[in-house]
Amino acid sequence: MEALVIHAAGDLRVENLPTPELGIDQLRVRVRCGGICGSDLHYYQHGGFGTIRVKEPMVLGHEVAGVIEAVGGDVKGFTPGERIAISPSWPCGACRYCQQGLQNHCLDMRYYGSAMRSPHVQGAFRQEIVVETHQAHRLAASVSDSEGAMAEPLAVALHAVQRAGSLLGKKVLVTGCGPIGALVIIAARRAGAAHIVATDVGSFTLGKALKVGADEVVNVAEQPDGLARFTADKGQFDVLFEASGNERALRGAFDALRPRGIIVQLGLGGEMTLPINTIVAKEFDLRGAFRFHEEFAVAVELLNKGLVDVKPLISASLSYRDSARAFTLAADRSQAMKVLLNFD
Fold this sequence. Notes:
This protein has 10 helices and 20 strands. Helix content is 24%, strand content 29%. It folds into 2 domains: 2-150 and 310-342, Quinone Oxidoreductase, Chain A, domain 1 (Alpha-Beta Complex); 155-288, Rossmann fold (3-Layer(aba) Sandwich). 47% of the residues are buried. It is an alpha/beta fold. The strands form 5 sheets. Strands 3, 7, 8, 11, 12, 19 and 20 form a 7-stranded mixed β-sheet that branches. Helix 4 crosses helix 9.
C-alpha cells in the first residue's frame, strides 16, 4: 500500500509500506478520506512543534474514515463493507489515569501520527490500516466519508465544551476561528449557549464562524478594540474558549470576561506570559482541554443523527498523491478551513 511519510520539515513522501498483518481481534480498513490537522501542518512546515520533533520517518494523519475490508476470526459485531470513522486514540487502559477515566492523559498513549514517543506512532494517512475494534465507530449512510473524517476534530471541540461545564443560557466568546474554533462554536451551540461571539484576524474564517452558528464576529485585525463594548460592568462573557494559541488573543479577552468567568484554553502555541493579577482579582477559572476520549463516540453519534453540520467547514478534497498542494492549501486560512485527502 501507499502512505504519506514525513522525514523532515518540507520532506513529505508517498512511499510503499506493507499492510500490517490482521490479528484475530482486529479490523483491516481501507482508508477513504483523511483530514489535515494543525499538528500535521506543524510536522510538515517545521518538523514538529514545541520540543516535539520528527526523529524518524513517520506516517502522518489521525483524522480518517474508511470501509472495513476484513475482520479477525474473533471479531463480533463488525462485518466487511461497513463504513467507519476511526478514533486515533489508543490508551493503555491500565495506568492510573486510564483507571480514573482520564484516558486522554494515559501514561502509555499511542496516538496516530505522533512523534511524542519513540519509536513514533505511525499515522493513518495510508491506503490500508489495521485497527482495534474499540477504535471503530460506524457511520450512517447519510454521513459522507468527508464528514466522518471530521469526527476527530469535533471530538476535540466536544471535550473543550465538556471542560467548561454547563453552557445552558451562557454568553460565550471564542477566540480563533480555524477548524477547531469553528467546531467549538458548533459544540457550544449544541450545548445550549445563548449567545456566541467569535474573533479572528481573517474575514474568511469569520465568515465560516457565522455559517456554523456564531451570533456575532469581530475581526480584531481591523478592529483591535472590537471587544471593548463587552467590557462594561467588569465584562459580559461567562465562558471564553481560546482556540488560537495566541497570547494576545487570550490577554485581549480578559477585560470582556466577567468575574469568575471560565477560560478553556485549547489552542496550542508558544509559551505565554499572563497577567496573573487580573486572573486573581477577577477570580478566573483557567482550564486546559487536551484531546478527548468518550467524546469521539458522541461526535459520531451527533453526525449520524444529523444533529450537527460540519459540511461548511470542508473546503477541498485532494488526492493524497497531491499532498504538497493539499498541505499548502490547508495552511492558507484566507481560502481554506479543513482540507481533506482522498485515498480512494
